[in-house]
Design goal:
Layout: E1 33-36, H1 67-75, E2 86-90, E3 93-96, H2 101-112, E4 124-126, H3 137-153, E5 157-158, H4 177-183, E6 192-195, E7 209-212, H5 215-224, E8 226-230, E9 234-240, H6 249-260, E10 269-273, H7 275-278, H8 282-290, E11 299-301, H9 306-312, E12 333-338, E13 345-347, E14 355-357, E15 368-372, H10 373-376, H11 379-392, E16 400-403, H12 407-415, H13 426-433, E17 462-465, E18 481-485, H14 487-496, H15 503-506
Parallel strand pairs: 3-4, 3-6, 4-5, 6-7, 9-10, 9-12, 10-11, 15-16, 15-17, 17-18
Antiparallel strand pairs: 1-12, 2-8, 13-14, 13-18
Length: about 500
């Protein structure tokens, strides 16, 4: 747990109402705090008899709601909701992939009939991405099952892949589902997006409710377009201050998870606000929301703004209606951070909440670096890594594996000039630094996969990774040691062969 890694004040992680950041910033830093409001529940065994009375002349009283509560209210066609209520929610988008799709389809056919039709063929998005570039027969069969179902149901949005030898020969193939959902315009403010993957919460960056569900729930949604959900209470995270140029959103979410623990947001909404968040790009907001599930969160959400709307231009023609938390909305807890005082972080094995300063781990020798996944394989993640390699002018000292999340990201790696490089692309800088050639876009080794998966951890090695989980066996070998880090820290570590604070190259 996070507390065990902090020598200075382990007790501070127990009392949320008085928590300092002294271990992670200078003594002059603004303190972190939480304001907690108790939720009162009144239970009546028997209601006393009352005589009829006329309605109040002031009309019904509307209580303030949070952003997530408003989305639930809209989706359940109710005017008012409170945390803890169970409601039938109308689903705007259901996503599934090659790992969970076959099981979800099987449940759908078992419960609704072999010849049943899905509730809306244009609201289902099917994205093969997990076990793609492998010779494993069962993995290949799963993609075949997706294809057969989509043809049978005439699914509009199926991003197929047939030629595994050359992903570029598959124009429909995208790659990692959570990044493809955004790039293809399936994420919209105010909507409900469900997916058979725990990191579906990534889409909350667009001001929508997005969460992962199981195969049984997905099978039900396929047939009805609805799901019974409990309204979660909301934790509010206020991040202010100018973000140092050696930090990325990965550092912010590792800080939060380390602070509240792996279970600190269990079945709660995590809403991110503040000047720091407002200045984040969409891809960085996606990183922030991506890992709320590593704190147990039901969903993460960033209020939609001009950055959101600009990103969506040209990606979707469907109308959407953003919603925002009311000024008087009740939050279960509120946390505040002065990001200007934060330092680069890592999560040590074997938990995402095992937080430590990167500079405190400088003696940890590593065997490899992995840059990729829905968390750390976006275009801006590779630009960040290239920035470090460019600043150093050196070659990596350990194998450095690069796995772009989607086909579009892969193209960006080979075409976008890196700022300050005199026109060089990421791929050119990576080659000069001695990195592996960028691989075919997919989830890759983030979750291990078949043994022949590119960059899978097949030996008990130490890996610095931009992915999201570092539990035993997550990337393959159960004795592997995974340190979660930002692309900056991952690239800096590749250059030295030890976990390295990126300020060594960026300042």
């Amino acid at each position: 747990m996070a507390a065990s890694t902090i020598a200075s004040s382990s007790s501070s992680f127990i009392n949320k109402t008085n928590v300092g950041l002294s271990t992670f910033c200078s003594p002059s830093s603004t303190s972190f705090y939480s304001k907690k409001r108790a939720l009162k529940k009144i239970v009546s065994v028997m209601a006393p008899q009352q005589s009829p009375r006329a309605p109040s002349i002031t009309g019904s009283v509307k209580n303030a709601m949070t952003l997530t509560e408003k989305i639930f209210a809209k989706a359940s066609e109710k005017t008012q909701l409170s945390p803890g209520e169970n409601v039938w929610v109308n689903v705007d988008i259901l996503m599934t992939h090659d790992v969970c799709g076959p099981g979800s389809f099987g449940i759908f056919k078992k419960e609704f009939g072999e010849n049943a039709k899905v509730w809306d063929r244009e609201k289902i998005v099917i994205i093969p991405d997990h076990y793609i570039f492998t010779s494993d027969e069962r993995a290949n069969r799963n993609v075949d099952i997706l294809r057969d179902f989509c043809m049978e149901q005439n699914i509009k949005y199926f991003y197929d892949i047939k030629d595994l030898g050359n992903f570029k020969a598959n124009p429909d193939y995208k790659g990692v589902c959570h990044i493809a959902l955004a790039q293809e315009g399936h994420c919209r403010p105010g909507e409900v997006l469900l997916g058979t993957d725990s990191h579906t919460c990534t889409a909350g960056a667009f001001g929508q409710f997005a969460t992962g569900i199981g195969n049984t729930d997905a099978g039900f949604v396929l047939g009805t377009g609805k799901l019974l959900l409990k309204v979660p209470p909301t934790l509010r995270f206020v991040m202010d201050g100018e973000m140092p140029d050696y930090l990325l959103a990965k550092d912010l979410i590792l800080q939060i998870i380390g602070e509240i623990s792996l279970s600190g947001a269990t079945y709660k909404s995590m809403e991110f606000v503040g000047s720091t968040v407002e200045n984040l790009t969409m891809e960085e907001r996606m990183t922030l929301c991506n890992m709320v599930v590593e704190a147990g969160g039901k969903n993460g959400v960033v209020p939609a703004d001009s950055t959101t709307f600009k990103y969506l231009e040209g990606k979707t023609s469907l109308p959407y209606e953003p919603v925002y938390s009311d000024g008087q909305a009740s939050f279960l807890s509120e946390y505040r951070f002065d990001i200007s005082k934060l330092e680069p972080l890592v999560a040590k094995p074997h938990s995402p909440d095992n937080r430590a300063l990167a500079r405190e781990c400088k003696d940890v020798k590593i065997d490899r670096v992995y840059i990729g996944s829905c968390t750390g394989g976006k275009t801006e993640d590779f630009l960040a890594a290239a920035k470090v390699f460019l600043a150093s002018g050196k070659k990596v000292k350990v194998p450095t594996f690069l796995v772009p999340a989607t086909q579009k990201v892969w193209m960006d790696v080979y075409s976008l000039p890196v700022p300050g490089s005199s026109g060089k692309t990421c791929s050119q800088i990576f080659e000069e630094a001695g990195c592996d050639t960028p691989a075919s876009p997919s989830c890759g080794a983030c979750l291990g996969g078949p043994r022949d998966t590119y960059a899978r951890l097949n030996e008990p090695q130490v890996c610095v990774s931009t992915t999201n989980r570092n539990f035993p066996g997550r990337m393959g070998h159960k004795e592997g040691q995974i340190y979660l880090a930002s692309p900056y820290t991952a690239a800096a570590s590749a250059l030295t062969g030890y976990i390295t604070d990126p300020r060594e190259f960026l300042q």
